[in-house]
Amino acid sequence: MTSYHIWTVGCQMNKADSERMGAGLEQLGLQWSQDPKDADVIVLNSCVVRQQAEERVVGMLTSLKPWKQRFPDKTLALMGCMVGPKKDDLLKRYPYVDLFMQPQQFEPLIELVGDKVGVDPDGCVGPFVPGSPSVTTHVPIIHGCDKFCTFCIIPYRRGREISRSINELVQECKMLVARGVKEVTLLGQNVDSYGHDFEEPSDLANLLQSIHDDVPELSRIRFLTSHPNDMSDKIIDAVARLPHVMENINLPFQAGNDEVLRNMKRGYTNAQYRELISKVRSTVPEVAIVTDLIVGFPGETEEQFEDSVQLIQDLRFDKVHVAMYSTRPNTFAQRKMVDDVTQEEKHRRLKVIEATQETILSEINASYFGSVEEILVDGHNKGRWQGRTRTDKLVFFESEDAELGQLRKVRITKTTPWSLSGSLLTANP
Questions:
Q1: Which residues of the chain carry a pLDDT beneath 50?
Q2: What SS3 string covers the chain?
Q3: Superfamily, domain 372-424
Q4: pLDDT in tens, 87-120
């Protein structure tokens, strides 16, 4: 047993979990295999937030059945949100899978692989921190969610909120910096509720301050995803005050109509959300705001949907993640509401939002033309370098001397709704 492959679908938290699972396997001596069917261990990290994601997981599980039957001594594991506390149904459907692990449940696979390779994990596996991370990486700071929005399966699969200690997170960031990381994104299903479960009062602002002060070599700090009800003045002020914290905030509104918001159990109104956005923008003038929206929630009328369109037009977000509502098992919406908006109508509403946002983004990004932006170089593809501005705008440029992890100044010479292009101002940073 010498190699592994992890297939990941879903959110940034899943990607972070996969990186940490890989770190544990590499500490046992395994190496990454690009082709899953050449690997000795295959891990599928699953997502069931939406039906489409679940279907992709089922497709992968089905496609790997012949592989597992041909190589019974190899290991196939399923982890992530598809695996709930009760696994009986999964065991019946996929008897050829060796392990089913809930989110962040790394130890069962580490122990199994350790036994197979003759290594004691207790003595050889330390913190689950990526050994060779990208210059930008994700750091989970809080697991689970206590909100129980009526459409969301996450609390049932990831459990209640549990925050990691500030000291543990500061040490992890120091370790990542030592391995070449220049930017971290602090992750949580509800990231701005961080610390609310501590006995001693603490919050996300305290964590941002600690990482900013104690890890000065870290060039950039981001965080997502936030809930409007937990976006405090203290957090907003931290974004404004701390130079290494980026002016980029994700604040999902999910629906623009108050009745739909009540049915979703979001805990705020259209007016309250608008007031919050106004506060963020007055405190952090350069901020870019990203949001999430669900179209076709049970009972959503055309008039109610238009309230969402109007909100987007009025607030002019830098990015809108829009998804069609899909019923998730055991959620309140699945048990108590009728999914009465047709797929065709959901798809039409999705296209309306996408077209509206494309127009807005064209105008927002056009305002960057001629400006000079600081970017963190994080990739190279097809002869061009790429990086992101402080506000998370994707920028492409050509250079013969750029390097991953550099902070460079770029003058923007071309804009599209989805990206910017430009030229370096100087040969060296």
A1: 428-429
A2: CCEEEEEECCCHHHHHHHHHHHHHHHHCCCEECCCHHHCCEEEEEECCCCHHHHHHHHHHHHHCHHHHHHCCCCEEEEEECCCCCCCHHHHHHCCCCCEEECCCCCHHHHHHHHHHHCCCHHHHCCCCCCCCCCCEEEEEEEECCCCCCCCCCHHHHHCCCEECCHHHHHHHHHHHHHCCCCEEEEEECCHHHCCCCCCCCCCHHHHHHHHHHHCCCCCEEEEECCCHHHCCHHHHHHHHHCCCECCEEECCCECCCHHHHHHHCCCCCHHHHHHHHHHHHHHCCCCEEEEEEEECCCCCCHHHHHHHHHHHHHHCCCEEEEEECCCCCCCHHHHHCCCCCCHHHHHHHHHHHHHHHHHHHHHHHHCCCCCEEEEEEEEEECCEEEEECCCCCEEEECCCCCCCCCEEEEEEEEECCCCEEEEECCCCC
A3: Nucleic acid-binding proteins (2.40.50.140)
A4: 888 999 999 999 999 998 899 999 999 988 888 7
The predicted-structure confidence for 237-251, as pLDDT tens digits, reads as follows 999 999 999 999 999
Q: Which fold has domain 136-366?
A: pyruvate-formate lyase- activating enzyme (3.80.30)
pTM of the shown model: 0.92
